[in-house]
Each structure stands twice: as structure tokens, then as C-alpha cells.
Specification:
Layout (H helix, E strand, L loop, with lengths): L6 E11 L10 E10 L2 E7 L7 H4 E6 L4 E4 L1 E3 L11 H8 L4 H6 L4 H10 L2 H16 L3 E7 L6 H18 L2 E9 L10 H18 L5 E6 L6 H13 L5 E4 L7 H7 L4 E4 L5 H10 L2 E4 L1 H6 L8 H7 L3 E3 L13 H12 L3 H7 L2 H6 L16 E4 L6 H4 L6 E6 L2 E2 L3
Parallel strand pairs: 1-4, 1-5, 6-7, 7-8, 8-9, 9-10, 10-11, 11-12, 12-13
Antiparallel strand pairs: 1-2, 2-3, 5-14, 14-15, 15-16
Helix pairs in contact: 5-6, 7-8, 9-10, 13-14
Length: 411
């Protein structure tokens, strides 16, 4: 192999959790190697299949015995950019107040809207950066960030610009979702139709034209927006060529999961109250079920998503943090994976698939989530002897190193 043709990096003496559907649990390969050139994987397989001596194949070779390599984790549902926090609501809930009661009293999402509107772009970046770094320090290499705490054109624009800037500062891929239909802002009390029109006819087209929007989301719920209002937003998104996803059936069944499936949506998220018919609709549409155990835990919910039905009908399940200031102040996707096992009875393999290949599907990404030649060189190296440890350990640092598009992550 000529010097110009050599790979950039090669890791040897590792275990690989390829997450490929090859029949082996985790798509696991023991005594393996993984190599990449530029931003693409060129080899991921047994050491015995390497086409030459390691140092003849790559410029940089590292032997990492006792480690497992997985695809970089993908957090496919976060509200990471916001101003302030809502620690006081945590106390109120412990004293007996419900999520709905806090929201209707002017707390909840609206309180984050006030703090977010008051923060300039640089201040929002300053507050959000530590949260993003915490996710990366636990193996995340791609993350989704929603707007929805601005609820007026300029504040929503600031949030989405900050999300893009976070990706540039940290060297990771950030996917954005416009969540204008998150809550009714106070100034539109009694004028719901006017606000929905603002979101659909002014905000979304403008932000999409500025290339700040990768997908469109909404909160279809009794304290959020109706089925009809969500459908109006989805019609506009479809006309603009943007994929849709939905906060659906967290607190009640308004038919949101079936609605987003009808639009061929990327994902339906939360899903505690999802009906059997909606599960079948999601299966037919290929819509991913994004499970959010952090919110379930923080709100002390007792009705889990219908995981058995998702399995029965072949609905792909993703796992995400739902990182937000009010109902899921969760800074670790690996901890969300463990919660999904304990609270929702996922297997550790299902949880890891949920934070890799299925999370990629929930974002409409096909170039990551597995370890295979041609895939983007996003990977995480873990100091574990068994892959179940990624869900077994509650907290602590297991990550040895991570790489995004072939570049080592430095925090």
C-alpha cells in the first residue's frame, strides 16, 4: 500500500459492536479492528481479515485491548438550548403539583420562554455549551436540538442559530427541529388561531429559507396543540420539503402517533398513551418510536410506552435524553439507556440500538449508527468488558475516547 493510500487511523485488539443485523447480538465481533480514512470507515472486522500488517495499513495505529468500540451515540431528542432552569418546579412536583397544574399556573414551558427570550445569542451559547459537552463526554457524536422556548420569530431564530453554532464549536453534527407549536405564548392568550398562523405561515417558511431547520416538530397534547393544528403545521412542512416528527401521547391519546405516521414522519416521541392502531400505523410507515425515560422518571409516570407492541409489530425503538429544563434535566444518554432498561424493560442490546442505528433513523440519517465500511467514522471506545455494562453502571465515566467524522473529540 502506498503512503498516500494508507488509512489515517486503525484501532486493533478491540471488540466491535457493529450494530449490523447479521444475527450476532450487538453485531459483535471479538478480537477485531476498525480503520478509517478521512471521514469514512474502510475496515471493520476481525483482526484475521486485515489485508496486511497494521503499521503498513495506517498512519496511526493504536492497540486497545480490553475495550469495546460502538458507533458514536446519537441523542435524537433534546431541548438543549434554553435560558435559566426550572429547579423550583422540581420542588413543586415533589410537594404534589402536577405537570399540568404547573403549566396552567404560568410555569412549565412558558417560564423557560421568558428566560430564553431575555438571553442574547452569545448568552444562550454560553449557557448551553456545558450541557452539550456533558452529552459528548458520555459518548454522543450526533445530537438533535429543538427550538420551542422562543415562541416568537427572533427568539426562535436565536435558538436555532445557537444550535448550529454548538455544532461548529464542538465539531459535531447538530440536527435542528423547529418546535414553534410547543406552547401558546402568553401574548396570544385567546388568539390561538393567530399564533398557529404565525408559526405556519411566517416563522417556518422564513427559518427554513435561512437553512436553520432540518425537521419540524410539535407538541400534540391537551396542554399543547390539537390534532387539527398539528396537521396544519405538517401540511406546511410537507410543502416545504421538510420531514416531520411529533411529541405524541405523553399525557393522553390525541391520535398524534397515527397522525405523524400518516405523513411518513421520522418519529413519534414519548408514546406512553399510544393505541394499538397507532402502533400498527407507525409500523406501516416506518416511523421510529423514540422512548424518553428521563421524562417518565422525572414526572414519576406509571404508564410506560407499549414496548411489547412495538416489538410485535417491528417498530424501531430509539432512546433519547429529552434533555430539557423542566421535565428531563438529563445530561447522559448512557443513563437514559439504563433507564430504558430498568423502567421500560428494554434489553441492553435494544437500548444500544436505540441510541445508535435507530436514533439515526429517527433523524433521517443513513450514514451513521453502525460500524461498516462506507459509514461515517463516528465511534466511541469504552472501557468495558461486556457491552451490557453501558446500561448496567449508573453514572460514572466509561468512555475512553470518541471520534466524529474521523476526528478525535476534544472537550
Amino acid at each position: 500500500m502506498t503512503d498516500d493510500a494508507r488509512w489515517d487511523h486503525l484501532l486493533v485488539d478491540v471488540g466491535l459492536a457493529t450494530m449490523r443485523d447479521d444475527g450476532a447480538p450487538y453485531g459483535a465481533i471479538g478480537n477485531a479492528a476498525i480503520g478509517w480514512r478521512d471521514d469514512r470507515i474502510v475496515f471493520a472486522g476481525p483482526m484475521a481479515d486485515l489485508p496486511g500488517a497494521p503499521h503498513a495499513l495506517a498512519h496511526h495505529v493504536a492497540s486497545l485491548p480490553g475495550t469495546w468500540v460502538t458507533p458514536g451515540l446519537i441523542d435524537c431528542h433534546t431541548h438543549l438550548v434554553f435560558g435559566g432552569d426550572r429547579a423550583e418546579e422540581f420542588e413543586l412536583r415533589l410537594e404534589g403539583a402536577t405537570y399540568e397544574e404547573i403549566a396552567r399556573a404560568g410555569g412549565g414551558i412558558v417560564s423557560s420562554v421568558r428566560a430564553t427570550r431575555a438571553a442574547g445569542e452569545d448568552e444562550l451559547l454560553r449557557q448551553s455549551l456545558p450541557r452539550a459537552k456533558a452529552l459528548l463526554a458520555d459518548g454522543v457524536t450526533t445530537l438533535e436540538i429543538k427550538s420551542g422556548y422562543g415562541l416568537e420569530p427572533e427568539a426562535e431564530r436565536r435558538m436555532l442559530r445557537v444550535a448550529r453554532r454548538l455544532g461548529e464549536v464542538l465539531g459535531v453534527d447538530v440536527r435542528t427541529s423547529f418546535l414553534g407549536l410547543h406552547a401558546l405564548p402568553p401574548e396570544y392568550a385567546g388568539r390561538r388561531d393567530d399564533y398557529v398562523a404565525l408559526v405556519c405561515d411566517i416563522m417556518l417558511p422564513s427559518l427554513a429559507d435561512e437553512e436553520l431547520v432540518d425537521a419540524v416538530d410539535a407538541f400534540c397534547e391537551g396542554i399543547g396543540f390539537t390534532h387539527a393544528e398539528t396537521q396544519r403545521l405538517f401540511d406546511k412542512a410537507t410543502a416545504l420539503g421538510l420531514p416531520v416528527k411529533l411529541h405524541a401521547e405523553q399525557l393522553s391519546d390525541l391520535g398524534g402517533a397515527a397522525l405523524v405516521a400518516r405523513y411518513g414522519g421520522l418519529s413519534a416521541d414519548h408514546l406512553e398513551w399510544t393505541s394499538p392502531d397507532a402502533v400498527r400505523a407507525m409500523a406501516a410507515a416506518g416511523t421510529v418510536a423514540v422512548l424518553l425515560p428521563g421524562a417518565y422518571y422525572a414526572l414519576r409516570d406509571t404508564r410506560p410506552p407499549p414496548v411489547d407492541a412495538f416489538r410485535e409489530h417491528g417498530v424501531a425503538m430509539a432512546v433519547a435524553t429529552d434533555l430539557n429544563p423542566g421535565t428531563s434535566p438529563l445530561l447522559s444518554l448512557r443513563l437514559a439507556m439504563g433507564m430504558a432498561c430498568t423502567l421500560f424493560r428494554l434489553t441492553p442490546e435494544e437500548a444500544l440500538r436505540g441510541a445508535t442505528v435507530n436514533a439515526a433513523r429517527a433523524l433521517g440519517l443513513t450514514d451513521r449508527g453502525t460500524l461498516a465500511p462506507g459509514q461515517r467514522a463516528d465511534l466511541a471506545v469504552w472501557n468495558v468488558r461486556h457491552l451490557a455494562e453501558l446500561c448496567y453502571w449508573i453514572g460514572g465515566s466509561l468512555l475512553r475516547e470518541s471520534w466524529v467524522a474521523g476526528e478525535r473529540v476534544v472537550l
